[in-house]
Amino acid sequence: MRANLRETLFLSGILLILxxxxxxxxxxxxxxxxxxxxxxxxxxxxxxxxxxxxxxxxFQVTPHSSSMLGGxxxxxxxxxxxxxxSLTCRFKGEIVRDGLIDTQxxxxxxxxxxxxxxxxxxxxxxxRIDFDRSGEYLSVHPSKADRAFQVTLVNATQWQYYGTANxxxxxxxxxxxxxxxxxxxxxxxWGYREVNRSMAAGTSSLQAELSFLYSLGKNMxxxxxxxxxPEPKENGSDWELGNIRITASLTSEGERDVEALxxxxxxxxxxxxxxxxDNSAAxxxxxxxxWDALEKKLPNFLxxxxxxxxxLAQARADTGRFHTDYSCDIxxxxxxxxxxxxxxxxxxxQASPVHxxxxxxxxxxxxxxxxxxxxxxxxxxDRAHDxxxxxxxxxPRVPGxxxxxxxxxxxxxxxxxxxxxxxxFSHRPSSGCRNYQPPxxxxxxxxxxxxxxxxxxxxxxxxxxxxxxxSPNRELSVQARTEEVKLKNGSLVKAxxxxxxxMKEKASDVIEVRRAEGHLQVLRNQKVLPxxxxxxxxxxxxxxxxxxxxxxxxxxxxxxxxEVRIREGSMAVTxxxxxxxxxxxxxxxxxxxxxxxxxLTTEHEEVISSTEATLEEIFTFGASxxxxxxxxxxxxxxxxxxxxxxxPPSHNPAFVPAFSLxxxxxxxxxxxxxxxxxxxxxxFCKYDTLTTRSLTMGSATLRTYQSHxxxxxxxxxxxxxxxxxxxxxxxxxxxxxxxxxxLSFTCNEGxxxxxxxERICLDDGSWTGEQPYCITDxxxxxxxxxxxxxxxxxxxxxMIKLHNRKQERExxxxxxQVVNQQQAC
Length: 825
Ligand SMILES: *[C@@H]1O[C@H](CO)[C@@H](O)[C@H](O)[C@H]1NC(C)=O
Ligand SMILES: *[C@@H]1O[C@H](CO)[C@@H](O)[C@H](O)[C@H]1NC(C)=O
Ligand SMILES: *[C@@H]1O[C@H](CO)[C@@H](O)[C@H](O)[C@H]1NC(C)=O
Ligand SMILES: *[C@@H]1O[C@H](CO)[C@@H](O)[C@H](O)[C@H]1NC(C)=O
Ligand SMILES: *[C@@H]1O[C@H](CO)[C@@H](O)[C@H](O)[C@H]1NC(C)=O
Ligand SMILES: *[C@@H]1O[C@H](CO)[C@@H](O)[C@H](O)[C@H]1NC(C)=O
Ligand SMILES: *[C@@H]1O[C@H](CO)[C@@H](O)[C@H](O)[C@H]1NC(C)=O
Ligand SMILES: *[C@@H]1O[C@H](CO)[C@@H](O)[C@H](O)[C@H]1NC(C)=O
Ligand SMILES: *[C@@H]1O[C@H](CO)[C@@H](O)[C@H](O)[C@H]1NC(C)=O
Ligand SMILES: *[C@@H]1O[C@H](CO)[C@@H](O)[C@H](O)[C@H]1NC(C)=O
Ligand SMILES: [Ca+2]
Hints:
Blueprint: H1 2-17, H2 44-47, H3 54-57, E1 61-62, E2 65-67, E3 73-80, E4 88-91, E5 95-98, E6 100-101, E7 106-110, E8 118-125, E9 133-140, E10 150-154, H4 156-161, E11 171-174, E12 184-198, E13 204-221, E14 225-228, E15 241-248, E16 261-263, E17 266-267, H5 274-278, H6 280-297, H7 312-317, E18 322-324, E19 344-348, E20 360-363, H8 401-416, H9 421-427, E21 440-445, E22 449-451, E23 457-459, E24 465-471, E25 476-486, E26 492-505, E27 511-516, E28 519-524, E29 527-528, E30 536-539, E31 542-548, E32 551-555, E33 561-567, E34 570-577, H10 615-624, H11 639-646, H12 670-676, H13 682-692, H14 695-714, E35 730-733, E36 742-747, E37 751-754, E38 758-760, E39 773-776, H15 777-787, H16 789-813
Parallel strand pairs: 2-9, 10-16
Antiparallel strand pairs: 1-3, 3-7, 4-5, 4-8, 6-7, 8-9, 10-11, 11-14, 12-13, 12-15, 15-16, 15-17, 18-19, 19-20, 21-22, 21-34, 22-23, 24-25, 25-26, 26-27, 27-28, 28-29, 30-31, 31-32, 32-33, 33-34, 35-36, 36-38, 37-39
Bound molecules: 2-acetamido-2-deoxy-beta-D-glucopyranose (NAG) (10 copies) and calcium ion (CA).
One 2-acetamido-2-deoxy-beta-D-glucopyranose is lined by residues 547-548, 550-551, 565, 707.
């Protein structure tokens, strides 16, 4: 806040004297800060108040991202050095490495090997002493790094199964030889493991370690391809997971943090010991049993996980908590190698708080959750979240690798190299969806129309900056800025539209998404983020996903998600909040409590009746939610923004909108409006067409409204009665466990069914009937013969009762949700 205030004072000063001269203070060690009389923030460039050597001191790098494995040379802008000059790079203030200078004097730092993702600070020195320049680069999950820089393992199946029955021969890898500026290269194997390191005071903790193991080839031609016949290695299973690395041959074997290309992480089947090659199934089974024993000792992480959405529609709509699992993505043709029978999978975005575990949810073509109880393609939870989790670095939170170690290796042991998948599934059962509650959504669209979390619709045309959602209790704030609508011919209208949203949760980075020339611009802590190399960013206390210049999703640890879209230049914002926010929201999107009547509660806690509110009263309500200057999360990086939003009151009292639109019968637009705007949302469409005098805008509003309706449709709660097993020696018809569904059961020939042949899932979340059992004629006969008819029937009845009671108890612990609507499977 101090810096903000100082900036304000300073900015007022600078604008008064219109001084554009540079200032004496330097940005050494201060990049991103605002100083007494000048600024070292990126915004200083447009505000013309940069400190003297800002552009030399605070540098950008190209490329701006690298796999967390490192090896990529990052060019430092604004720095040219004499050949033979000195260049030292320091990452995160602790990893010091020599930089590179090319023949033209351009300076580079090579991204180091890290076990974390996110923006990594770089300081640079040209005299080995003063690190007086700084910048940052984005370290990304290895599987999200630029594929062009990867060593490709040709025929992945052959690599994965090498040494198992019928898989042998030569292995081949390929790379783009022009990315290594050398005629000859070294090809190395690196292995990953997590080792127990003792710490101070007798404690110990696991540490991630990616280490050089041995070279597959030294001084080989940089031909872009390399083939070899792998040898089994003694004690190969000390390192079962790893990567290939290719470097220029001049670098010494295993030298760290040099320019290099890496392959993807993979299971090192081809490097395992002779006993694996002799009988891989037996070897794998043994490993699977060892893993089984280990899992039984490790803490239970399953009860910490969030339940999966019941339907594909819910999973795709709940973007604040679930995100596409790219290994099974309907938008990329549903190639689901590990999940046969599924067409789309999502992962819970946040790792679970204590264990850093992950949830995965896969859906079949009918949109139903696929469960491991029914199918090998079922959704499986992960002890370690594939994407890692803050603060990363320490197992099991290392992105990618921890997951491979805890969840993927064992899948190879139990499911792929041997036939004991039931062991794997016993520790990684699919989640049901009985405890899943869809989030609530509120939206702002068009010339701004609001639909609150409880579904109240209204239009508020204030000009200024307002709280869309404020939740003091959960420390979430989402602020919105509106600006006057400008017609094509340049004249302004007495109506406004959304132009930016800024948000923050707890101590997270501040994220702003704003309109810039028809697309979206995303800022993190007052600086524009580039999305040219990466669509996803792990930031501090927040994730940002920008799949296109028209769409951005901001995701907070609480599960709150903010979707920003731009269509025909018109911005819309959807805020999704999990039900934990109930009773804890205020602002323009209302008090979320399933009661629309109190949504027009002003900042002064005055409730305006939503049924009788006049447009003027709604305007007063909206104005009351103007933000306080101290709490503003916006970036004011132009004179226009300073003059329009920073200096004047947050709610501009001089701007009075037209409260009603003249819908005159001789308006030439009228007949087109009547054809365009019909059905639900027609009123928004009409309003916006008339205010903007543009059918395109009206149509954009209508489409955005329809998208919101589709979202609400997808988010409708559904009732699940929970999974029912297939009776042993029998069959179950159906794999959908939602209200209204019927499951039928039959027994194999020679068996008799006890219990219900049909069970129906009721709206209250319970199944009708009794769980069926299949029992042989002989067994019945044998039991009868041995103990006598009566007592055996009693025994059996008791057994069935006990079993049912146990199931009943489990179900009671996981009650079904409130019935709202049924979803056909
Ligand atoms: C910035 O200016 C200060 C003082 O003029 C100087 O000491 C420092 O070396 C400069 N830094 C760079 C990167 O040019
Ligand atoms: C991949 O390797 C497997 C096993 O060696 C082999 O059967 C298959 O033909 C190979 N596929 C290709 C495309 O080379
Ligand atoms: C190899 O990399 C160079 C330099 O980046 C690039 O121009 C070329 O297109 C790449 N070739 C292939 C086959 O990807
Ligand atoms: C690490 O060491 C500690 C104490 O030495 C031990 O209790 C713990 O089980 C070890 N963890 C692993 C994964 O080996
Ligand atoms: C393999 O492991 C055994 C027992 O741990 C050890 O004695 C031997 O030196 C190891 N061999 C190699 C090549 O690491
Ligand atoms: C712009 O167009 C609107 C309606 O189409 C009209 O009312 C207004 O006068 C025009 N303004 C200018 C400056 O031409
Ligand atoms: C962007 O948003 C639009 C409008 O909601 C949607 O139709 C489109 O699929 C989104 N695109 C991406 C890449 O998410
Ligand atoms: C919200 O508050 C109301 C009244 O105080 C209370 O009845 C209701 O149970 C609360 N809902 C939740 C989800 O906390
Ligand atoms: C703006 O917000 C303040 C509280 O932050 C409130 O006192 C003031 O009345 C609001 N302005 C208007 C015009 O409602
Ligand atoms: C399973 O149920 C479906 C519809 O409920 C029915 O059409 C089908 O015949 C049943 N299959 C068997 C094997 O009973
Ligand atoms: Ca309400």
